[in-house]
Structures
1.
Amino acid sequence: MKINYREIGLVNTKDLFKKAVSGGYAIPAYNFNNMEQLQAIIMACVETSSPVILQVSSGARKYANQTLLRYMAEGAVEYSKELGGDIPIALNLDHGDTFELCKSCIDLGFSSVMIDGSHHPYEKNVEITAKVVEYARRHDVSVEGELGVLAGIEDDVVAEKSTYTRPEEVQDFVSKTGVDSLAISIGTSHGANKFKPEQCTKNEEGIFVPPPLKFEILHEIEERLPGFPIVLHGSSSVPKNLVDIINKYGGSIKDAVGIPEDQLRKAAKSAVCKINIDSDGRLAMTAAVREVLSEKPEVFDPRKYLGPARESLKELYKHKIINVLGSADKA
Ligand code: G3H
Ligand code: 13P
Ligand code: ZN
């Protein structure tokens, strides 16, 4: 059975990106794997009146099942209306690695897919991306491509070293593939350990300050592709207070460093119109769960620790929308 995303109230990203680029803000792209994460995202976006891109990764598909997640997204559209919000919601496949996977998501009702061919040689990346675009176009589904490799290790997204995007390739890539947006590598990376301590300096409060993002690469890309939507993956900020709570209550997260929020704010004001955040949400939930279970050892009802985790996640997402991405009141 094939379903078009419009039938279930989702939107593609074209209009969202057009407004974000001209308005100088970025759309939040938040990953979800379970009900509490999805509820937190929808509550945060409705309360701030922000558009949102819900993301399903390969890891999420394995953990929770692609079909179930897609029906949850359909439920999220209705849930947002019930909460009184009329916010645009897109559903994106995060880091799709094959044509077949992208096709199956499009057929299932996703409104956007990322085909991540960044690990392939350039010509192969062009070929696989163009094939996905050709199929997606027929269904008016948006496609995100990627040039340059982000470092980081997670379930299904693994690269030890990053390779910055080469600005001289972007025009050729976009014109040959027809992608709607382009993810680039300018110093962000996946996970909670984005930089080694020796790459950072320390400020007065003892907080690691990482090297700045390569804004010169971003500007060159903007000059070559004026007004074209750019995407930043690996954009968690790894808040120190969350890492401290996790470690205080028995966790062991060492040398965690993220992307400072002011860097992301600066990027959001430029052609960067989609910012991917996943790890910070994981930290927020884990901190809350650890705290409740340590402080209240008698608790065994999952709602008693997942409820506070959801609340903490919602506050984190609202903070990003209002203070970092600038997407509040843009729904
Ligand atoms: O970019 C990667 C996302 O954070 C998803 O990670 O494959 O562990 O779900 P995951
Ligand atoms: P973080 O690991 O920095 O949250 O990045 C998430 C991401 O890029 C999802 O595609
Ligand atoms: Zn990513």
Note: The mean pLDDT is 95.
2.
Amino acid sequence: MTRKIRKAILPVAGFGTRVLPATKAVPKEMLAVFDRPAIQYVVDEARAAGIEHIVFVTGRNKSAIEDYFDVAYELEESLRAKSKTALIEDLRPTRLEAGAASFVRQQEPKGLGHAVWCARDIIGDEPFALLLPDMIMLPDANAPGCLEAMIAAHAAHGGNIIGVNAVAPEFAHLYGIVAVGAKKDIGFEISGMVEKPPAGTAPSNLYINGRYVLQPEIFDILATQERGAGGEIQITDGMRKLMSWQPFHGVEFQGRVYDCGDKIGYLRATAALAMANAAYGADAVAALQDELAIAARHRPA
Ligand code: G1P
């Protein structure tokens, strides 16, 4: 019997330097992707996969995230007084149940591995999910969410599970890349991994898409605080060490992944999530087609 994955870590301490000036005074996770903050999509994905408790690893200037998932008492009372029930309903996913979230600070930007390690006491001795909020997942029609599919793989294989997607060779140096071992009914064995490989050296075309199911032994490895790529404590390096005695499987996500860590990725996410929105999708497609036609007319020759 594998243990249920109950808790998830969401590291939200980053500065968002690649989206400045938008992120000067607003956490990047709070920038709206169409009609809700980017982080809402990631929290929804976690909850749909059965996650019961979310650990946000925050930093200074990130208190808007904590407020967003709290009860907005005055706002809700005022909407109630005006009988704006549809708007009250829209706020429902923004509430986390009492006691279902923790906030811990990463005091210095020492890397993703260090951010994860900051949550060790709250996670304790059980396997957990890790979701990087820069990455927003849009499943194909009828496909499960990325984390949901990975938790199913964990129930089948145990051990550690990494979400992957295909990447064009020219972008491989921006991500962690896995090496592919034996294929399984669900997913495949991972036989190696490397963080941000120099151009032309990636072991496959499958990149780590920002979703993980990890065993708690990773914390002991991260505690050694060894620096890797970019002088940072890397989760990929920690996982590579853990691989020498625990199994890792990869699961390819059936859908689109939007990397909101840079301006064009963020733009794509905004357009895609607007077009995928149940209420506004058709209008969004029409508006974007209009804008494209207009832009084509005005672009300098
Ligand atoms: C991190 C991980 C990397 C992964 C990526 C996905 O990199 O270290 O392995 O592929 O997230 O977004 P970062 O984006 O923090 O540089």
Note: The radius of gyration is 20 Å.
